[in-house]
Write a structure and sequence with these properties.
With 302 residues, the protein is of the alpha/beta class. It has one domain (2-301): 4-Layer Sandwich (Metallo-beta-lactamase, Chain A). It contains nine helices and 14 strands. Strand 3 (51-54), helix 2 and strand 4 form a beta-alpha-beta unit. It binds D-malate, manganese (II) ion and zinc ion.
């Protein structure tokens, strides 16, 4: 299975259009020290030419242009076989509407996420005015086969586990499964990628499940719980926004460094997070613990 990091920044991108925090300043003034990043999304494929997206970001147009594909016959080619959603947040779903020219789209998500994009953000309803959207509702806990748009099997399965967090601000219900860890498995090799761009807590059950993955892509939104308050951006702690901070004794770095996954990579990194800066002490701490700070364009094969 091939896994590409298409976008590794949290909502707003890096630098964020309206932000002049210390990290965004470095990204503007000296991008070689803090590479700009587009909004959080991955692509994965069993054969290297037919791709599924993990979340559809507002930067999807530029992101899908980077995907390899087979020779195109005819005048149209849809480079996305399906879109797997880990939540209904705008940075993970607005890209669905931007793919509306695709005529036939496949969206794979939990019932909670489907309800939110149907009834609350109406991303699904708006897209359905332009395209047929086939919805595969995935119940929590059961692996489900992923098919290509033509109905043939991809050889990949998807399994969703609910994680701690809060539903999107615009969601009218707090339904179990609004935020999930997605486990993508290649049935021919048994190898698995765990994709968890939003996670508000790491309990023992989730950790044991993550440990089975060869490749772990995990929530690197904030360095500290009070990151936004310290910068006078917002009073909201990271944990109240559904993001476990990277640093600290109960932070994700300390906990994930104990897992045996071959590759552990941070993604969905907020523009304020100091680990974005090359050569920073925060970046050094991540790397010393055996984790990777994700960057757009990184490619993994498992
Ligand atoms: C999040 O990751 O918590 C959300 O994307 C926040 C937002 O959309 O503003
Ligand atoms: Mn987000
Ligand atoms: Zn910033």
């Amino acid at each position: 299975m091939h896994v590409f990091l298409l976008g590794t920044a949290a909502g707003g991108g890096f630098p964020q259009w309206n932000c002049w925090c210390p990290t965004c300043r470095v990204a503007r003034e000296d991008p070689s020290r803090a590479h700009p990043r587009s909004q959080s999304s991955i692509a994965f494929s069993a054969d290297g030419v037919r791709w599924f997206l993990g979340n559809a970001s507002p930067d999807v147009r530029e992101q899908v242009a980077t995907l390899p594909h087979a020779a195109v016959e005819g005048v149209r080619h849809v480079p996305v076989e399906g879109i797997v959603l880990t939540d209904a947040e705008l940075d993970h779903t607005l890209g669905i509407t931007l793919l509306r020219e695709g005529r036939l789209l496949q969206v794979i998500a939990t019932p909670a996420v489907v309800h939110t994009i149907s009834d609350d953000s109406r991303v699904l309803a708006v897209t359905q005015a332009f395209a047929t959207v086939q919805i595969l509702e995935v119940d929590l806990g059961d692996p489900v086969p992923l098919d290509y748009r033509d109905g043939s099997s991809s050889g990949l399965t998807i399994e969703m586990k609910a994680v701690r967090g809060d539903p999107p601000r615009f969601a009218r219900r707090d339904e179990v499964g609004h935020t999930v860890a997605a486990f993508i498995r290649d049935t021919s090799t048994g190898k698995e990628c765990a994709f968890v761009p939003g996670c508000g807590g790491l309990g023992p059950k989730l950790l044991a499940r993550l440990d089975q993955a060869e490749l772990l892509l995990f929530d690197g939104t904030f360095w500290t719980d009070d990151e936004l308050a310290r910068l006078d951006i917002s009073d909201r702690p990271a944990l109240s926004m559904g993001h476990v901070p990277v640093s600290g004794v109960e932070g994700s770095l300390a906990v994930l460094s104990q897992l045996s996954c071959r590759l552990k990579v941070y993604t969905h990194i907020n523009n304020t997070n100091p680990m974005l800066v090359e050569g920073s002490s925060e970046r050094a701490a991540v790397e010393a613990s055996g984790l990777i700070v994700g960057m757009d364009g990184m490619r993994f094969e498992i």
